[in-house]
Specification:
single chain, 8 strands, five-stranded parallel beta sheet, three-stranded mixed beta sheet, 7 helices
Amino acid sequence: MGKTIMKKVVVLGCSGSGKSTFSVQLHKATGLPLYHLDNVWWRPDRTHITREEFDEKLDELLARDSWIIDGDYSRTYEKRVLACDTVIFLDYGEDVCMRGIMERVGKERGDIPWTENELDPELVKLVREFETENKPVLLALFKKYPDRNVITFHTREEAERWHTGLAGCFDEKVCICPSGRRQYVYIRQTDTR
């Protein structure tokens, strides 16, 4: 069983899959700096920066020594997969993700600079199309970059069990957590955001 150091982690999945929640838990366990792409793209007034500004900010994040980056932003999939050592893919079904986007309406969240007051029809469309539009792109990238460690969860319960395995590592310097055939080594870091 090989051991892999996890320093640059991309968390991917459909909107509503819980990427940000998962990323916060991983950040707490590992101490890796966490960046939510929605907080990079969106302004509090619900406008957004330009693509050029976003790409520049994303490039700055990717150039850092360690990070967890969550968000869909499909046009940047390849750039992020290329820059990371580990991909966490939350491969949940449409029903789970649809519930996820409905349940967050009206809730204040740290991963986006406003509170959603109603269900966004554009977001509903993204969830409905993820399986046929985005997932095939991701799977092709995972094949294109076989040296990336891809950890796929098909249910929230699988992801929770994996996080539970990290629970004993919160205060340790080094944690070894098995995942499938590999062991992942987490080196606890101080948040350098």
